[in-house]
Amino acid sequence: xxxxxxxxxxxxxxxxxxxxxxxxxxxxxxxxxxxxxxxxxxxxxxxxxxxxxxxxxxxxxxxxxxxxxxxxxxxxxxxxxxxxxxxxxxxxxxxxxxxxxxxxxxxxxxxxxxxxxxxxxxxxxxxxxxxxxxxxxxxxxxxxxxxxxxxxxxxxxxxxxxxxxxxxxxxxxxxxxxxxxxxxxxxxxxxxxxxxxxxxxxxxxxxxxxxxxxxxxxxxxxxxxxxxxxxxxxxxxxxxxxxxxxxxxxxxxxxxxxxxxxxxxxxxxxxxxxxxxxxxxxxxxxxxxxxxxxxxxxxxxxxxxxxxxxxxxxxxxxxxxxxxxxxxxxxxxxxxxxxxxxxxxxxxxxxxxxxxxxxxxxxxxxxxxxxxxxxxxxxxxxxxxxxxxxxxxxxxxxxxxxxxxxxxxxxx
Length: 412
Ligand SMILES: Cc1cc2nc3c(=O)[nH]c(=O)nc-3n(C[C@H](O)[C@H](O)[C@H](O)COP(=O)(O)OP(=O)(O)OC[C@H]3O[C@@H](n4cnc5c(N)ncnc54)[C@H](O)[C@@H]3O)c2cc1C
Fold this sequence. Notes:
binds flavin-adenine dinucleotide, 4-stranded antiparallel β-sheet, 49% helix, single chain, alpha+beta, 4-stranded mixed β-sheet
């Protein structure tokens, strides 16, 4: 992003995150994660914490920096160049932390939020179940209160960080007798007796981040670990979808940017038919298209970030956040795909990291809510706005020669 629009603290956080991505993460870690020699890079999270880079939006009292989304998206883009696993592990304290920050009690913040930001507690978010992820309200994991504990039973799958997490934010059905919107509770579940994590699948990309299936069998969760109201997880979910989707969106910018830079340098050096391939329109237009898409995606993500800072959660913000997630992740996918095309055969090999970034990018349109679900939210929230709003702008519908022929305006 052009520095001209950044205030000094934004430049500073961007530069700190950029320096961390450049110097704080070894090439070997990336290779070992992709080869699944590393299953969960706990030291990476501790190192981020040591650099005071976790939970940037939370108050210093709880280990954050008291910054806002306009700052956090800048850091997320820089970390995004490391690929989806490390970007996601960087994001999880921001995602789980949001639930604690907005809905947590003082005691919960002291016991969990602060240690998370200090890198002493690692976290995962357990929402998706084997029976499905898109239909959040169909959750089948259950919690039942028994005195001073909840008994948690069920399974979650595709949980990033599960293999190393000390703490899980879990959504489970707490009231089987009412409509789903009032039937689910959110709980903080420590890794304890009855929690089992299995590494059951090979992933196309986004490896080494501890993605696993989690079984909860009669896990005893203290009642004080309830987040928000009992049966009130709908509110928690609604709030958490902001960091969940904004982190995906902003991380995707970094991944796309990295791929574009590699391809652009390559096109400037590689020759075919006696000239640099960037001199062929078929190549240079791909670079131009990618750059334009990335700039447009970045503008959308940054504006959305500033809007969240200004007005907080709302129907309008849900639309903008979903647009950002959808557009930025589709952009990253298109940019990485074109980067591979620009590089020809060598882009398909592990001589360059484009193939790894492509494998990572593919997930981004699926996780944190598929882009079809983003479309569902976008149009739903738009119709709410459209149908509620009084006509204040020009009524363009009447600017047609026969617009007054009411008999031709048939809708059913
Ligand atoms: C590597 C990886 C990491 C992940 N990390 C996490 C994590 O940390 N925590 C977590 O909780 N989850 C995580 N997920 C889960 C991810 O968010 C889900 O996979 C995703 O939300 C889709 O859910 P699903 O796979 O069950 O697909 P389904 O919900 O079964 O959907 C299948 C298809 O149907 C479409 N579809 C479903 N409903 C509709 C609809 N109403 N309208 C239009 N299309 C629809 C979907 O878009 C999709 O194309 C991860 C997944 C992967 C693969």
